[in-house]
Structure formats: structure tokens, C-alpha cells
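Reply to dn_fold:

You asked what the input looked like. This is it:
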Amino acid sequence: MSTLHPNRNDDDARPRAGTIIWGGLAMVIGLLVLAGELTGLVLDPVLVFMVLLISTGAALIVGGILSMNRRP
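and this is what came back:
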């Protein structure tokens, strides 16, 4: 057990919002690449990157605010 958070139990550990969001981003990129290979879908990579970057940043900010409100 860590000495940084002596009151937290390992059973109470929840996945961090950042972990979920970055994992979701990796899945979306993988699905876009797969869809492009299977269907011949052509997307502007700069536009896709900008949309993914903005949506990931917004999700990280919202996740941080929500987790800040849940802390005792």
C-alpha cells in the first residue's frame, strides 16, 4: 500500500479519466485507419488530427472538473 494516500483502499481505486480518454483516442485512431483501409475512405489528416486533439482536450478538462468535484 502506498504511503501517499493512507486512507484510500485498493478496492476504491477507479480508473482515471485521462486513462480512459487516451485509450478512447487510440481506439478512434485505430478505427479510422481500419475504416480507411477497408472502405477506401479518404479523410483530410490535418482536419482529423485537429478534431481529435480538440475533443480530447475538452474531454480531459471535463473529466478533471468532474473528478475534482467527487473528491472529499
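The chain has two helices and no strands.
Hope that clears it up.
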